[in-house]
Amino acid sequence: MSDEAHARLPRSSVEFAYEWFCRAVAVKCIAFGLFYWIRLIGLYEGDLWRFDLMPLHWQVAGAMLSVLFPIAAIGLWMAVSWGPVLWVIAAAAEIVMHGALPDLFGYRPGLVALHVATLIGLVGFRVMLYLQHLQRVERY
Hints:
Layout: H1 3-8, H2 13-41, H3 56-78, H4 82-100, H5 102-105, H6 109-139
Helix pairs in contact: 2-3, 2-6, 3-4, 4-6
């Protein structure tokens, strides 16, 4: 099927739902990004939650995630291919931080579960979209 013929096909309900799923994840990414920026600039009340007072492992993680989450949010909102990729990198980093290294970053099972559930949803949508693509190819 040519790209021109594919462009004329109406959007399916799965494509529509995937787009809004990505936008919901984008809103979550903006919230996480803002949270990391609040910590980095020192507005967060707590011990060692200003960049110059953080331990090195938190400085690296905080700086990386404060950039990755907002950029992933832009890609997810626009529904471009690099948005989910950046989100997976950021989510994997937080899963490792709070799941595998709780002695350094603290144990946050709710956050890990949220990322895993979102990842399962993302993979589920991608599988449904792929199967739908195969059906369209067979039909045309």
